[in-house]
Amino acid sequence: MAMTLILVKLTSLFNASQTLSKNNPVFAGIASLYGLGILTFALRDIPATLWDFLTRQLTTTMTLNSHDEIFFTLLIWISKHKMHRFMRSYNLGNPGRWGIRDEVLTLGYGRTLFLLDGFPIFINRFKIEANATEYPKESIELTILGRNSKRFYDLLQAVRDSLKNADNTYTAYYWRDHNWHPLAVLPKRSFDTLSLPQKTRACLLNHVRAFISQKAWYLANGIPYRTGILLQGPPGTGKTSLITSICSEFNKGAYILDLSVHTDITLKEALSKIPAGDIVVIEDIDTHFSKRPETPTVLVNDDGNDEDEAKVPVITLGGILNALDGIACGTDRMVFATTNHPEKLDPALIREGRFDLKLTIDYMTDETLQDYMGRLYPDFSKEELKMWAVKPGIPPCKVQHLVFENRQEPAIVLSQIADRREERSISDVGIEYEQRMAS
Q1: pLDDT tens digits for 52-72?
Q2: pLDDT over 80 at 439, yes or no
Q3: So where are the chain's domains?
């Protein structure tokens, strides 16, 4: 009954307005404009909504954030391969930020496109509001026509492969803002440039090759697929250089784990975000766990008072043990640690399972001296080199320094690091070398 009365009233109002509109043109105009305004207001969002609907249905979008390594890798790739010929906005890459030392002119902010194998890819780079960070946060949106996401996989693979094979380098990374970032793009180093006994070299290479090639065996037998290698020995014997050669030989990235900036929690987070197959590097591990207490350290202010804000958590021995060999420590990685004082390390830290191979990288031997001098002074007689015995306690770094200072005087270098096995003057050795060089 009530609904019927409402309909009757609405009908009478419509008939009255229709009669009034016929008799009063001004009222008719006002009513028409009012109705058009209401209709326009109701339909104002339809064009944008329709465009958004069509965009979602007909295109596919991928987003890259600046805390992802591939973000910077893509920017460098665009620059190196001249993919920005359609662009009208450029950015000059900050040297050192992406692990490179040269300025890079690459994609600017805003929208543009580039062609990949003749197929257009629309790209939009923009900033994201963020506080308390060293660098501004950014994102890149890549959009393609259609729904074939395989084009994104092809693009990312092309980026990785191109940069991997473009030059003779590897990348070192450091931890910042809860993510790994490129620290430096470094030249690769051959094993042939190291002062290393053949037996030590073979032992290390065989261990790494066996680990890389036997992943299926580890998994089939329920053994965690990870290994640790401890390089121990006096300072200046080339432990870090050896890690560089491993990264170069096996095309791995080096993730520098600075324990002084971590807590037990952030250490696990950092290790969990290292890509599978790459190398973790912990230098001078004895400086972090030599007589270190199991409780957090308390820093004291200059006024001598302990305050709550002065307390900073550090890594405990238990924290590093769990990170290296705990349930949540991850797999498919190699950990290299160096130490000058292995006797200071806790036995639990360097036991098998955490560090499966322990190599002593020692002072120069007669073998390494002959190899090193023969490589740097190829015209120097090999038979003559065999007549020299290296002095005790000579690290490779000292020999390298002497070579820098005496690049044309091998006799002077030998006189300071070795003793001649039989009587013969240094001047005679120098004269013979000069004669060979002249001929």
Answers
A1: 666 677 788 888 887 777 787
A2: no
A3: 55-166, 186-360, 366-438
Cα distances (Å, whole numbers) of residue 247 to 41, 171, 193, 233, 283: 64, 9, 14, 20, 15
Q: Are strands 59-65 and 137-145 parallel, antiparallel or unpaired?
A: antiparallel
Angle at 377 between CA 375 and CA 383, to 5 degrees: 85
Nearest alpha carbon to residue 152 among 54, 58, 51, 74: 74
β-pairing, 254-256 vs 279-282, is parallel
CATH topology of domain 186-360: Rossmann fold (3.40.50)
Most confident of 76-85, 248-257, 380-389: 248-257
Whether 303 has a pLDDT exceeding 50, the answer reads no
Is the torsion defined by CA of 71, 77, 79, 84 positive or negative?
negative
> Which residues have CB under 8 Å from 320's CB, separation 6+?
259, 267, 288, 289, 349
Assess contact for 138 and 93: CB atoms under 8 A: no
CA 314 – CA 316 distance, rounded (Å): 6
Interaxial angle between packed helices 317-325 and 264-272, expressed in degrees from 0 to 180 and rounded to the nearest 10: 20
